[in-house]
Structures are given as C-alpha cells and as structure tokens.
Amino acid sequence: MSEFKDSTKMALKKVLIVGSAPDATRTAHWDTSCFSHTIVINNAWMACPSWNCWIYPEDFPSNRHPSPQQLVGKRVVTAEEFVPVQNEFGGFVYAGGTMSMTAGYWALGALKPDVIAYIGCDMVYETQAGQATHFYGQGTADPLRDDVTLQSLEAKSLRLQALANRNACCVVNLSDQKHSRLQIPRVDFQTLHDMQPSEHAKWINMPAVQMALQAESDLGYWVESGRYWEEAETFDREKLRGIDALWLATLSKEAESSPCF
To answer: Fewer CB within 10 A of the end CB, N or C, for the chain?
Structure first.
C-alpha cells in the first residue's frame, strides 16, 4: 500500500519556475528531471542549464536572448501566448504586471500542473550601492517600479496561490533567502517530493477569495491586449489597493504564524 502511495506522489506533475534572484544559481546543480517543465524567466536561462522553456516580455533586450543554438528543442513563450492565458485568470491589472506572476499564470493555465515551485523570484533587492543584485550583474528592480498593478506583491502572490488552488494546484517557494515577497509556503525538495496537491489548501480563506474575485468583477478593469500601461491613467489606484487588501485577507490566521511563510 505504501508503495502505491509513493508512486502516486511521484506521478504528480510539477513545474519549476526560475527567476533571477540570487539563489537562482542553486539550480545549476539540480537534477530537474522531476519537473515536467523548467521555465526560466528573462535572464534566468543563464543560471539554469537544464531549462526547457523560456518566457520573456516584449521589451526584453535582444542582446540578452539565448542563441539560436541554445533554443533548439526548447519552448519559447512570448506575449502572443501568455497574454490570452493570463486573461483567463482575470488579466494583468488584477494579476500584476511582472513576469514572476505572468509565468505562474501561464504555467497554471497552459501546463495544468499539480504543483508550481518557484525559485529565484523573491522580488527583493537588498544590496550595497554598486554591488551585483543578480547572478548576471546589477539588476533593475522591475517588480518594485511605481506601477498601479504592483502596489502589493504579497497580495498578487496570494491571488496566484488562491486561483491555483481552485485549479487543484499547489504553489510553493523553494527559496532559501531571508526575505521574499512571495507570500506562499516555503518548502525544501523533500517536502516537494512528498506533498499532495491539496496539502496547502488549509492556508487559504476561500470565502475571502470569493469576495476578492467579486470585487474585481464589480470594478471591471479589463485590457484584453495585456498592454495595461496604455490605459493606466483610467485605473483608480485606491480601488486597486482595496482589492489588494481583500487578497491579503485570504491568508488564514494559521498561515500567518506558520514558519512555512
């Protein structure tokens, strides 16, 4: 009976998303064969040799692209593919206009995994002046820019976690950094190996999720093209901040005191 359970766990479909935070370089020595897809965001293809899927936005500099040879046999995901998928989950205004969130929603909708595991997506930029913030040098704090959709990265990560849960998927953080803006459970590889998809549903206040989704629907901010910045002046910052507060309330009291967060 125990062997059957173990084989069931091994059969879970897991996706790894790699960003460019300092601990992304840990993936250089990982055996990622347990993941159906290893998705690298922007520059992260330089840190994770075993990647098989690259996702990047329209304005990502061409001189930082992998070479044509490095792209052989790899999946490349651009706005043409990720915008429609993110729209299925409410669009960029509510999901947050940063690639960490976009990669998560694309993976959730396009790949339909049981588990999404993040590494290198802490969105924390603590450094001394002139020091490297990323493995490739001095990074731009894109998620921390003054953007109406990114007033609370914590709220955006809780939204992703909640919508993933509604689709029978867990979202976890493999980061070993001291701080992370991803308000999702931290796990190690052994826990990731042993977990079941419904394991972290207890952290989510589902009635609060319904309230937040209803508030989004009532507000009705929608940009089908995904180019929300072209209409940003029409969005009420305070109303969006209020929706962020609703998403922050979806984290249960038990989770707030848990060492997993």
So the answer is: N
